[in-house]
Amino acid sequence: MIWSDAAGDVVRVAAGAILCPLVPGLVQHIKGRLQGRRGPSPLQAYRELARLWSRSMVTPADTGILYRLAPTVVGACLISALLVVPIAGQASGWLVGTDALVLIGLLALARFMPAAASWDTGSGFALMGTSRDLTLSVAVEGLFLAVLILAALPTGTTDLRALSDAAAGGAAWTSPAHWLAALGFALVLLAETGRQPVDNPDTHLELTMIHEGPLLEYAGRDLAYLQWAAAARHWIMLILAVELFLPHPGGLLGGLGATVVTVPLLCVVLALVESWQAKMRLLRVPRLLATGAGLCLVGLVIWFLGITS
């Protein structure tokens, strides 16, 4: 049993690590089609990673250990997060467990390390993007926690496998609280992955960068690690949407089928949102996230009042 669980974890993590660059690539391809352009190939993200991997690394002058460690720590955090998140309800919890709070901690550490590295470099534009990213992260992580607590109420646990089992079938959708949690998570997904209206993933202007800002001083393999980690974060958020907040059948085969079908559909939805919605002014983004927090509070009230339909 131990060996079979370990083999399942290896397959699940390898699949996530290999497939995750396809997610942003597919979103960009669909956006191009929606906007009347040919658009980049869905495999463009792989080409970018291969190009960066072949380039030499650059170390700014007077940087210390934080700058050098950041890409490695971020990559390790995202690999560990892939272990935590179940696919089709399957995860052994080997080494890191399957608790949602562990996942939040890993994603927070992966955000903190590039921020600390940007302070190490002292780059003005990197620090500008970092300050914006950290300002938004306070609201994003609080909303993420509120959403997971709301989703955990029916099971009484924050174990992601139990949450996935509880969301399987149609029973969870009889509760208005589950719908409100799903709406709140939609905002978390946009913010965590740097999509519009929270951030513009296509921008190359330093003055408007948020999530890309802390990466400005990296090049070569270090930048490849960080860009892969951003794609892995995207993958994890979509898998959480499938497992916890969208209708899916129970069982291994049913869950895998739902993942194969739903993840591309969510990419289409993200492309539609980005083609329709412009980037918000920075000071308005916390208000948007506060709306998600308000939905979660309403969901908590509904749950404690026992309103189930």
Question: Could you explain how this protein is built, in words?
Answer:
- The protein is mainly α.
- It has one domain.
- Helix content is 68%, strand content 0%.
- It has eleven helices and no strands.
- The protein has helices at 2-19, 22-34, 44-54, 65-84, 100-121, 124-152, 160-167, 176-192, 220-245, 252-276, 285-305.
- Helix 4 (65-84) runs parallel beside helix 9 (220-245).
- The longest helix has 29 residues, at 124-152.
- The model has no long low-confidence stretch (mean pLDDT 86).
Q: Top keywords for this entry?
A:
11 helices; mainly alpha; single chain; 309 residues
What's this, in brief?
The chain is mainly α and 309 residues long. 68% of the residues lie in helices and 0% in strands.
Helix/strand class: mainly alpha
Mean pLDDT: 86
Give the overall shape, derived from the CA principal axes.
globular
Specify the biggest β-sheet.
none
**Helix and strand succession?**
HHHHHHHHHHH
Count of individual beta strands:
0
Unreliable runs: none
Integer count of domains:
1
Roughly what fraction of the amino acids lie in strands? under 5%
Percent of residues in helical segments?
A: 55-70%
Total helices: the number is: 11
Cα-atom radius of gyration:
19 Å
Cα distance, first to last residue? 41 Å
